[in-house]
Amino acid sequence: MPSALPLGLPAPADGVLPEQAREGAAQRNFGLYVHIPFCAVRCGYCDFNTYTATELGGGGSQDQYAGTVHQELALAGQALDASGVPRRPLSTVFFGGGTPTLLPAEDLAGILSAAVAQWGLVEGAEVTTEANPDSVTEESLRILAAAGFTRVSFGMQSAVPHVLKVLDRTHSPERVPQAVEWARRAGLKVSLDLIYGTPGESLEDWRHTLTTALSYGPDHISAYALIIEDGTKLAGRIRRGEVPPIDDDDHAEKYALADELLTAGGLRWYEVSNWARTPADECRHNLAYWRGDDWWGAGPGAHSHVGGVRWWNVKHPRAYAAALTPGTSPAAGREVLNDHDRYVEDVLLRVRLREGLGIDRLEPAGRQAVAGLIADGLIEGADAIRGRVRLTGSGRLMADAVVRRLLPD
Fold first, then answer.
1. Per-residue confidence (pLDDT) for residue 61, from 0 to 100
2. Which domain holds residue 130?
3. What is the DSSP track for 12-52?
4. Where is the signal peptide, in residue numbers (predicted)?
5. What is the DSSP string of 352-371?
6. CA-to-CA distance for 218 and 98, rounded, in angstroms?
7. Which 8-state DSSP code applies to residue 262?
8. In angstroms, rounded to a whole number, what is the distance separating the alpha carbons of residues 196 and 19?
9. pLDDT tens, position by position, 49-95
10. How far apart are CA 47 and CA 45, in angstroms?
11. Is residue 13 part of a domain?
Protein backbone atom coordinates (compact mmCIF):
# COMPACT_ATOMS: atom_id res chain seq x y z
CA MET A 1 0.00 0.00 0.00
CA PRO A 2 1.14 3.62 -0.48
CA SER A 3 3.33 5.08 2.25
CA ALA A 4 1.79 7.18 4.99
CA LEU A 5 1.52 10.96 4.87
CA PRO A 6 3.86 12.93 7.16
CA LEU A 7 2.66 14.37 10.43
CA GLY A 8 2.16 18.11 10.51
CA LEU A 9 0.15 21.06 11.73
CA PRO A 10 -3.57 21.31 10.94
CA ALA A 11 -4.27 22.97 7.60
CA PRO A 12 -7.02 25.63 7.47
CA ALA A 13 -10.18 24.77 5.56
CA ASP A 14 -9.87 27.87 3.34
CA GLY A 15 -6.30 27.00 2.30
CA VAL A 16 -4.98 30.45 3.26
CA LEU A 17 -1.22 30.51 3.86
CA PRO A 18 0.78 32.34 6.53
CA GLU A 19 2.58 35.61 5.80
CA GLN A 20 5.89 33.82 5.13
CA ALA A 21 4.50 32.40 1.88
CA ARG A 22 4.36 35.76 0.12
CA GLU A 23 7.83 36.97 1.09
CA GLY A 24 9.95 37.12 -2.05
CA ALA A 25 7.32 35.24 -4.09
CA ALA A 26 7.60 37.61 -7.05
CA GLN A 27 11.23 36.50 -7.51
CA ARG A 28 10.44 32.76 -7.54
CA ASN A 29 9.07 30.62 -10.35
CA PHE A 30 5.64 29.07 -9.87
CA GLY A 31 4.67 25.63 -11.14
CA LEU A 32 1.80 23.18 -10.97
CA TYR A 33 1.91 19.46 -10.26
CA VAL A 34 -1.22 17.43 -11.01
CA HIS A 35 -1.38 13.96 -9.48
CA ILE A 36 -3.37 11.37 -11.41
CA PRO A 37 -3.67 8.41 -9.00
CA PHE A 38 -4.90 5.72 -11.41
CA CYS A 39 -3.03 2.68 -12.68
CA ALA A 40 -4.18 -0.28 -14.74
CA VAL A 41 -2.10 -2.62 -12.55
CA ARG A 42 -0.14 -1.96 -9.36
CA CYS A 43 3.53 -2.66 -10.09
CA GLY A 44 5.22 -4.90 -7.57
CA TYR A 45 7.80 -2.28 -6.53
CA CYS A 46 5.43 0.71 -6.36
CA ASP A 47 4.94 2.65 -3.12
CA PHE A 48 3.29 5.68 -4.75
CA ASN A 49 -0.20 6.93 -3.97
CA THR A 50 -1.91 5.02 -6.79
CA TYR A 51 -5.05 2.91 -7.13
CA THR A 52 -6.49 0.46 -9.60
CA ALA A 53 -10.16 0.63 -10.52
CA THR A 54 -10.97 -2.37 -8.30
CA GLU A 55 -9.39 -0.67 -5.27
CA LEU A 56 -11.49 2.47 -5.58
CA GLY A 57 -15.02 1.12 -5.44
CA GLY A 58 -17.83 3.63 -5.24
CA GLY A 59 -16.17 7.08 -5.24
CA GLY A 60 -13.19 8.84 -6.71
CA SER A 61 -13.85 7.44 -10.16
CA GLN A 62 -11.71 8.20 -13.20
CA ASP A 63 -14.60 9.65 -15.18
CA GLN A 64 -15.28 12.29 -12.50
CA TYR A 65 -11.70 13.00 -11.58
CA ALA A 66 -10.94 15.87 -13.96
CA GLY A 67 -13.90 17.83 -12.62
CA THR A 68 -12.65 17.34 -9.08
CA VAL A 69 -9.20 18.69 -9.99
CA HIS A 70 -10.89 21.72 -11.57
CA GLN A 71 -12.44 22.40 -8.15
CA GLU A 72 -9.03 22.37 -6.49
CA LEU A 73 -7.52 24.68 -9.09
CA ALA A 74 -10.30 27.20 -8.44
CA LEU A 75 -9.72 26.92 -4.70
CA ALA A 76 -5.95 27.33 -5.26
CA GLY A 77 -6.44 30.63 -7.03
CA GLN A 78 -8.71 31.89 -4.24
CA ALA A 79 -6.37 30.72 -1.48
CA LEU A 80 -3.25 32.27 -2.99
CA ASP A 81 -5.08 35.56 -3.62
CA ALA A 82 -6.39 35.62 -0.06
CA SER A 83 -2.87 34.90 1.20
CA GLY A 84 -1.49 37.94 -0.62
CA VAL A 85 0.77 35.80 -2.81
CA PRO A 86 1.23 37.67 -6.11
CA ARG A 87 -0.19 36.00 -9.20
CA ARG A 88 2.50 34.53 -11.42
CA PRO A 89 2.12 32.68 -14.70
CA LEU A 90 3.06 29.02 -14.59
CA SER A 91 6.63 28.25 -15.59
CA THR A 92 6.07 24.49 -15.60
CA VAL A 93 3.18 22.03 -15.37
CA PHE A 94 3.72 18.34 -14.64
CA PHE A 95 1.11 15.58 -14.71
CA GLY A 96 2.38 12.60 -12.70
CA GLY A 97 0.99 9.51 -11.10
CA GLY A 98 -0.02 6.83 -11.37
CA THR A 99 -0.56 6.84 -15.09
CA PRO A 100 -1.97 10.22 -16.16
CA THR A 101 -2.69 8.97 -19.67
CA LEU A 102 -5.24 6.49 -18.35
CA LEU A 103 -7.51 9.53 -18.32
CA PRO A 104 -8.83 10.59 -21.73
CA ALA A 105 -6.50 13.06 -23.43
CA GLU A 106 -9.41 15.50 -23.48
CA ASP A 107 -9.57 15.39 -19.66
CA LEU A 108 -5.86 16.16 -19.33
CA ALA A 109 -6.23 18.96 -21.87
CA GLY A 110 -9.17 20.34 -19.90
CA ILE A 111 -7.20 20.40 -16.65
CA LEU A 112 -4.35 22.21 -18.38
CA SER A 113 -6.81 24.70 -19.88
CA ALA A 114 -8.28 25.39 -16.42
CA ALA A 115 -4.79 25.96 -14.99
CA VAL A 116 -3.90 28.36 -17.79
CA ALA A 117 -7.17 30.23 -17.27
CA GLN A 118 -6.31 30.54 -13.58
CA TRP A 119 -2.66 31.66 -13.86
CA GLY A 120 -1.52 31.82 -17.47
CA LEU A 121 1.71 30.33 -18.84
CA VAL A 122 5.08 31.98 -19.33
CA GLU A 123 6.32 32.01 -22.90
CA GLY A 124 7.99 28.69 -23.66
CA ALA A 125 6.61 27.01 -20.53
CA GLU A 126 7.34 23.31 -20.06
CA VAL A 127 4.23 21.09 -19.83
CA THR A 128 4.89 17.39 -19.20
CA THR A 129 2.85 14.27 -18.72
CA GLU A 130 4.10 10.91 -17.57
CA ALA A 131 2.80 7.95 -19.55
CA ASN A 132 3.15 4.22 -19.88
CA PRO A 133 4.00 3.20 -23.46
CA ASP A 134 0.80 1.14 -23.67
CA SER A 135 -1.42 3.96 -22.33
CA VAL A 136 -1.13 6.27 -25.35
CA THR A 137 -2.13 6.29 -28.99
CA GLU A 138 -0.94 8.46 -31.82
CA GLU A 139 -4.21 10.38 -31.65
CA SER A 140 -4.10 10.92 -27.86
CA LEU A 141 -0.59 12.38 -28.12
CA ARG A 142 -1.71 14.68 -30.92
CA ILE A 143 -4.55 15.93 -28.70
CA LEU A 144 -2.13 16.61 -25.85
CA ALA A 145 0.32 18.47 -28.09
CA ALA A 146 -2.48 20.58 -29.56
CA ALA A 147 -3.63 21.44 -26.02
CA GLY A 148 -0.20 22.82 -25.09
CA PHE A 149 1.74 19.84 -23.74
CA THR A 150 5.40 20.04 -24.76
CA ARG A 151 6.93 16.89 -23.28
CA VAL A 152 6.10 13.28 -22.45
CA SER A 153 7.99 11.05 -20.03
CA PHE A 154 7.56 7.36 -20.82
CA GLY A 155 8.00 4.72 -18.13
CA MET A 156 10.20 2.37 -20.17
CA GLN A 157 12.01 0.94 -17.09
CA SER A 158 13.74 -1.88 -19.01
CA ALA A 159 14.15 -3.34 -22.50
CA VAL A 160 14.43 -6.89 -21.12
CA PRO A 161 11.22 -8.96 -20.86
CA HIS A 162 12.16 -10.92 -17.74
CA VAL A 163 13.04 -7.69 -15.91
CA LEU A 164 9.73 -6.09 -16.88
CA LYS A 165 7.98 -9.22 -15.60
CA VAL A 166 9.60 -8.93 -12.17
CA LEU A 167 8.56 -5.26 -12.06
CA ASP A 168 4.98 -6.19 -13.11
CA ARG A 169 5.14 -3.77 -16.03
CA THR A 170 2.35 -4.30 -18.55
CA HIS A 171 3.99 -3.10 -21.78
CA SER A 172 6.19 -5.07 -24.13
CA PRO A 173 9.61 -3.68 -25.11
CA GLU A 174 8.42 -3.35 -28.73
CA ARG A 175 5.80 -0.80 -27.70
CA VAL A 176 8.33 1.82 -26.58
CA PRO A 177 9.78 2.83 -29.98
CA GLN A 178 6.28 3.06 -31.41
CA ALA A 179 5.17 5.40 -28.61
CA VAL A 180 8.33 7.48 -28.99
CA GLU A 181 7.73 7.83 -32.73
CA TRP A 182 4.13 8.92 -32.14
CA ALA A 183 5.30 11.54 -29.65
CA ARG A 184 7.89 12.82 -32.11
CA ARG A 185 5.29 13.14 -34.84
CA ALA A 186 3.12 15.15 -32.46
CA GLY A 187 6.01 17.53 -31.78
CA LEU A 188 6.61 16.45 -28.18
CA LYS A 189 9.98 16.16 -26.49
CA VAL A 190 10.62 12.65 -25.15
CA SER A 191 12.06 11.48 -21.85
CA LEU A 192 12.54 7.83 -20.88
CA ASP A 193 12.47 6.59 -17.28
CA LEU A 194 14.69 3.59 -16.54
CA ILE A 195 15.15 1.46 -13.41
CA TYR A 196 18.29 -0.51 -12.58
CA GLY A 197 18.98 -3.12 -9.93
CA THR A 198 15.85 -5.23 -10.40
CA PRO A 199 16.29 -8.69 -8.86
CA GLY A 200 17.65 -11.02 -11.55
CA GLU A 201 18.84 -8.19 -13.83
CA SER A 202 22.41 -8.82 -15.04
CA LEU A 203 24.88 -6.13 -15.99
CA GLU A 204 24.42 -7.15 -19.63
CA ASP A 205 20.64 -6.82 -19.23
CA TRP A 206 21.18 -3.26 -18.02
CA ARG A 207 23.64 -2.53 -20.84
CA HIS A 208 21.03 -3.74 -23.33
CA THR A 209 18.40 -1.46 -21.77
CA LEU A 210 20.68 1.56 -21.95
CA THR A 211 21.79 0.99 -25.55
CA THR A 212 18.20 0.29 -26.60
CA ALA A 213 16.94 3.47 -24.92
CA LEU A 214 19.68 5.51 -26.58
CA SER A 215 18.78 4.04 -29.97
CA TYR A 216 15.38 5.79 -29.74
CA GLY A 217 17.10 9.20 -29.61
CA PRO A 218 15.39 10.59 -26.48
CA ASP A 219 15.96 14.15 -25.32
CA HIS A 220 16.23 13.08 -21.70
CA ILE A 221 16.77 9.92 -19.65
CA SER A 222 16.19 9.34 -15.94
CA ALA A 223 17.84 6.27 -14.41
CA TYR A 224 16.83 5.33 -10.88
CA ALA A 225 18.13 2.59 -8.60
CA LEU A 226 15.33 0.26 -7.53
CA ILE A 227 14.41 0.80 -3.89
CA ILE A 228 12.43 -1.93 -2.16
CA GLU A 229 9.79 -0.37 0.08
CA ASP A 230 8.23 -2.28 2.96
CA GLY A 231 4.73 -3.48 2.23
CA THR A 232 5.16 -3.77 -1.53
CA LYS A 233 4.59 -6.98 -3.43
CA LEU A 234 8.25 -7.14 -4.44
CA ALA A 235 9.40 -6.77 -0.83
CA GLY A 236 7.28 -9.81 0.00
CA ARG A 237 8.79 -11.82 -2.84
CA ILE A 238 12.30 -11.02 -1.65
CA ARG A 239 11.40 -11.89 1.95
CA ARG A 240 10.06 -15.27 0.80
CA GLY A 241 13.20 -15.94 -1.25
CA GLU A 242 11.35 -15.98 -4.58
CA VAL A 243 13.72 -13.41 -6.08
CA PRO A 244 17.20 -12.31 -4.93
CA PRO A 245 17.64 -9.16 -2.81
CA ILE A 246 19.08 -5.99 -4.27
CA ASP A 247 22.78 -5.28 -3.84
CA ASP A 248 24.46 -1.89 -3.28
CA ASP A 249 27.60 -2.88 -5.20
CA ASP A 250 25.43 -3.96 -8.12
CA HIS A 251 23.69 -0.57 -8.03
CA ALA A 252 27.03 1.25 -8.06
CA GLU A 253 28.33 -0.76 -11.01
CA LYS A 254 25.14 -0.16 -12.97
CA TYR A 255 25.12 3.56 -12.21
CA ALA A 256 28.69 3.86 -13.47
CA LEU A 257 27.74 2.01 -16.66
CA ALA A 258 24.73 4.27 -17.15
CA ASP A 259 26.84 7.40 -16.83
CA GLU A 260 29.45 6.01 -19.23
CA LEU A 261 27.00 4.97 -21.95
CA LEU A 262 24.63 7.93 -21.64
CA THR A 263 27.54 10.38 -21.79
CA ALA A 264 28.96 8.59 -24.83
CA GLY A 265 25.47 8.71 -26.35
CA GLY A 266 25.39 12.52 -26.20
CA LEU A 267 23.52 13.10 -22.95
CA ARG A 268 25.02 15.02 -20.02
CA TRP A 269 24.16 14.51 -16.36
CA TYR A 270 22.59 17.54 -14.69
CA GLU A 271 21.25 15.82 -11.57
CA VAL A 272 22.50 12.61 -10.02
CA SER A 273 19.81 10.47 -11.67
CA ASN A 274 19.08 12.56 -14.76
CA TRP A 275 20.76 13.16 -18.12
CA ALA A 276 19.71 15.55 -20.92
CA ARG A 277 20.84 16.07 -24.51
CA THR A 278 21.06 19.84 -24.09
CA PRO A 279 20.38 22.27 -21.22
CA ALA A 280 17.07 23.07 -22.91
CA ASP A 281 16.09 19.39 -22.54
CA GLU A 282 16.55 19.31 -18.75
CA CYS A 283 13.33 18.82 -16.81
CA ARG A 284 12.61 22.34 -15.63
CA HIS A 285 9.79 21.19 -13.38
CA ASN A 286 12.05 18.92 -11.36
CA LEU A 287 14.73 21.62 -11.30
CA ALA A 288 12.16 23.87 -9.64
CA TYR A 289 11.84 21.32 -6.83
CA TRP A 290 15.61 21.03 -6.42
CA ARG A 291 16.06 24.81 -6.42
CA GLY A 292 13.30 25.51 -3.91
CA ASP A 293 10.82 27.32 -6.17
CA ASP A 294 7.05 27.43 -5.55
CA TRP A 295 4.49 24.93 -6.78
CA TRP A 296 0.91 23.94 -6.11
CA GLY A 297 0.28 20.20 -6.00
CA ALA A 298 -3.26 19.22 -7.02
CA GLY A 299 -4.74 15.78 -6.47
CA PRO A 300 -4.92 13.20 -3.66
CA GLY A 301 -1.69 12.98 -1.70
CA ALA A 302 -0.08 15.80 -3.72
CA HIS A 303 2.43 18.02 -1.93
CA SER A 304 2.74 21.78 -2.40
CA HIS A 305 5.37 24.37 -1.45
CA VAL A 306 5.18 28.15 -1.42
CA GLY A 307 7.86 30.22 0.30
CA GLY A 308 8.84 27.62 2.86
CA VAL A 309 5.25 26.61 3.61
CA ARG A 310 4.63 22.98 2.68
CA TRP A 311 1.32 21.13 2.74
CA TRP A 312 -0.12 17.85 1.50
CA ASN A 313 -3.56 16.64 0.48
CA VAL A 314 -5.54 13.73 1.85
CA LYS A 315 -4.49 10.55 0.10
CA HIS A 316 -7.57 8.67 -1.03
CA PRO A 317 -9.43 9.86 -4.15
CA ARG A 318 -12.79 9.51 -2.40
CA ALA A 319 -11.65 11.55 0.60
CA TYR A 320 -10.12 14.11 -1.76
CA ALA A 321 -13.35 14.52 -3.72
CA ALA A 322 -15.42 14.68 -0.53
CA ALA A 323 -13.22 17.44 0.92
CA LEU A 324 -13.58 19.61 -2.18
CA THR A 325 -17.34 19.17 -2.60
CA PRO A 326 -18.22 21.86 -0.03
CA GLY A 327 -15.46 24.10 -1.41
CA THR A 328 -12.95 23.47 1.35
CA SER A 329 -9.27 22.62 1.10
CA PRO A 330 -8.33 18.93 0.74
CA ALA A 331 -5.09 19.54 2.69
CA ALA A 332 -4.43 16.99 5.43
CA GLY A 333 -1.63 18.95 7.12
CA ARG A 334 1.17 21.41 6.65
CA GLU A 335 4.47 22.62 8.01
CA VAL A 336 6.18 26.00 8.05
CA LEU A 337 9.90 25.60 7.52
CA ASN A 338 12.24 27.72 9.59
CA ASP A 339 15.51 29.15 8.30
CA HIS A 340 17.51 26.08 9.39
CA ASP A 341 15.04 23.68 7.73
CA ARG A 342 15.29 25.60 4.48
CA TYR A 343 19.09 25.67 4.68
CA VAL A 344 19.25 21.89 5.16
CA GLU A 345 16.90 21.29 2.22
CA ASP A 346 18.87 23.70 0.04
CA VAL A 347 22.14 21.86 0.68
CA LEU A 348 20.54 18.42 0.37
CA LEU A 349 18.99 19.15 -3.02
CA ARG A 350 21.44 21.51 -4.69
CA VAL A 351 24.44 19.28 -4.06
CA ARG A 352 22.81 16.71 -6.36
CA LEU A 353 22.86 19.15 -9.29
CA ARG A 354 25.68 19.49 -11.82
CA GLU A 355 25.69 23.23 -11.15
CA GLY A 356 26.43 22.41 -7.53
CA LEU A 357 26.21 24.65 -4.51
CA GLY A 358 28.05 27.86 -3.72
CA ILE A 359 30.50 27.30 -0.87
CA ASP A 360 29.52 30.71 0.49
CA ARG A 361 26.03 29.30 1.13
CA LEU A 362 27.42 26.75 3.58
CA GLU A 363 27.59 27.31 7.31
CA PRO A 364 31.12 27.32 8.81
CA ALA A 365 31.07 23.61 9.71
CA GLY A 366 30.09 22.74 6.15
CA ARG A 367 32.84 24.90 4.66
CA GLN A 368 35.37 23.15 6.88
CA ALA A 369 34.34 19.79 5.37
CA VAL A 370 35.15 20.85 1.80
CA ALA A 371 38.89 20.16 1.95
CA GLY A 372 38.33 16.60 3.18
CA LEU A 373 35.77 15.95 0.47
CA ILE A 374 38.26 17.10 -2.16
CA ALA A 375 40.94 14.86 -0.68
CA ASP A 376 38.54 11.90 -0.76
CA GLY A 377 37.76 12.52 -4.42
CA LEU A 378 34.09 13.25 -3.81
CA ILE A 379 33.92 16.86 -4.99
CA GLU A 380 35.80 18.58 -7.81
CA GLY A 381 38.85 20.49 -6.53
CA ALA A 382 38.96 22.96 -9.41
CA ASP A 383 35.31 23.88 -8.88
CA ALA A 384 35.88 24.27 -5.13
CA ILE A 385 38.67 26.77 -5.86
CA ARG A 386 36.12 28.71 -7.91
CA GLY A 387 33.72 28.63 -4.96
CA ARG A 388 31.39 25.74 -5.77
CA VAL A 389 30.73 22.28 -4.38
CA ARG A 390 30.28 19.97 -7.36
CA LEU A 391 30.24 16.20 -7.17
CA THR A 392 32.76 13.98 -8.93
CA GLY A 393 31.63 10.68 -10.45
CA SER A 394 32.50 8.94 -7.17
CA GLY A 395 30.74 11.70 -5.29
CA ARG A 396 27.54 11.07 -7.17
CA LEU A 397 27.63 7.46 -5.98
CA MET A 398 27.99 8.74 -2.42
CA ALA A 399 25.87 11.90 -2.61
CA ASP A 400 24.09 11.18 0.66
CA ALA A 401 27.43 10.76 2.46
CA VAL A 402 28.65 14.06 1.00
CA VAL A 403 25.55 15.82 2.29
CA ARG A 404 26.01 14.34 5.77
CA ARG A 405 29.54 15.77 5.89
CA LEU A 406 28.36 19.18 4.71
CA LEU A 407 25.59 19.14 7.33
CA PRO A 408 27.30 17.87 10.49
CA ASP A 409 25.13 17.63 13.60
1. 80
2. 19-290
3. PTT-PPPGGGGTTGGGS-EEEEEEE-B-SS--TT--SS-B-
4. none
5. TBTT-EEGGGS-HHHHHHHH
6. 22
7. H
8. 43
9. 677 765 665 556 888 999 999 999 999 999 999 999 999 999 999 99
10. 7
11. no
